Amino acid sequence: MSHTAPPTIISLKTSFLSAQTRALSNLLHPSRAWQTTNEELPDKAVNDVMAKLNNRVLQHCKRVYAPQATRHVAEQIEALYISSSYESLELEGMGGMGKG
Predict the structure, then answer these.
(1) So which domain of life are we looking at (predicted)?
(2) DSSP of 14-71
(3) CA separation for the pair 7, 12 (Å, rounded)
(4) What's the CA gap between 19 and 92, in Å, rounded?
(5) Which of 21, 32, 37, 48 could form a disulfide with 65 if both were Cys (CB 3.0 to 4.6 A apart)?
(6) Tell me: the pLDDT tens digits for 41-67?
(7) CB atoms within 10 A of CB 73
(8) Which residue from 67, 60, 68 is spatially nearest to 28, judged by alpha carbons?
(9) How far apart (Å, rounded) are the C-alpha atoms in residues 10 and 75?
(10) Which distant-in-sequence residues (6+ apart) come within 8 Å of 92 by Cβ?
């Protein structure tokens, strides 16, 4: 029987951040309500603007949400979590109530 190690805080946070990055990286499309309200605009103009906008969004996501940046944020979250745990243990050791 093989036991797999439980996921680390970094791996959990990296997975979460990656999922959020994918959600933010989705192509944008005008809503039906917007299209109905602005139907006098030529389709070609709207499509050109949306293509440029989506290109900018993808460029932005590649720069801002690079895997290294996601890993760095996950490491910061882990450090805060560990720091918080140590503070909790110190409070318990001094007769105070801990967070856990």
Answers:
(1) Eukaryota
(2) HHHHHHHHHHHTSPP---HHHHHHTTTS-HHHHHHHHHHHHHHHHHHHHHHT-HHHHH
(3) 6
(4) 36
(5) 21
(6) 999 999 999 999 999 988 888 887 778
(7) 15
(8) 60
(9) 6
(10) 98
